[in-house]
Each structure stands twice: as structure tokens, then as C-alpha cells.
Write a structure and sequence with these properties.
There is one protein chain. This protein is an all-alpha fold. It has a domain at 16-127. Helices cover 69% and strands 0% of the residues. It contains six helices and no strands. It has helices at residues 2-27, 29-63, 69-86, 90-100, 102-123, 160-164. The chain is flat and about 85 Å long. The relative contact order is 0.08.
Amino acid sequence: MPFILAFLFLIVPLIEIWILIQVGQQIGAFPTILLLILMSIAGGILAKREGLAVWTRFRSALSRGEVPSAEAVDGVLVLFGAALLLTPGFLTDVLGLALLIPVSRAGVRRVVMKSGGWLVAKRFPFLIPLGLVRNRSRNVKARTVTVEPDEQADSRPQDVNDRDRITGP
């Protein structure tokens, strides 16, 4: 986990700066800044449109009595894509736009739903009986052991008053 955080907070900004410098050297500083602004505006419009579409599909699935799992994952991906667009840089803008375009988002959703379900099941096992996630844990072979009652189990109080009596420490 620390390696992932180091990558996200150190390496990605360095890559972004390098790409900005390379694009700026090729097309100039002003066109580079203008391109970033236009990508952010287009991404904001797309994020709003896709977010509303996902919300509509989510509510529609709920009204039909279905579990909106694909719609929930789409909502998270749209939110993540919009957050990537807030980060200045071409790499994060391209990744953010890819999460906002329905065709590419569907591929990411398939991967997330196939590989991410067991992570959710591991963290939130109470969702497994509800059918919201699948348990991909391996089956464990076990054997049944029959325990014979001991003799003290038969020495229960026979009188009703004895059963109601509370014994303290």
C-alpha cells in the first residue's frame, strides 16, 4: 500500500510535469494551457451528462426492484473520472475522459466487478447473504463431530422455582 501511495503522489505528478513540458515544447505554452482548459471543460460537460445518466439508470433499477450493482460501479467510475479531470495534466485528463466515455467505462466496470467483488466480500462479509457481492473464498473441507451430552447436562432443575432462581457470584 505505501508503494501505491508513493506512486500516486510522487510519480504521477512527475510524469504529468514531463508530459506538459514535452507538449509545451512541441506546440507552445499558450496552446498547451488552452488545450488543458478545453479538455477540462469538455470533461466537466461529459461528467455531468454521464453522472445524470448513471443516476437515472440507478433509480430505474431500484424502482424495478433490482440491485443496481452495475449502476453503482458506473457511478463510482464517473465520480473517479471527474476527479481525475480536476487534476491538471494530460495523463489524468485522458484517464478521466476514458472513465467518462460509456464504451471504455464498460470495460473497466467488467474488470472491477469481476476482480473487486472478493475485496468487498472480504471487507464487508455481511453483504454476501444479501447477494450484493459474491464470496470467492475457497471452500474449506470440514468434518462433522458429534458431541455426546455429559452427565451434568441431565441435572437440570426439576422444580419451576429452581429454574427461575438467579444465582449470583
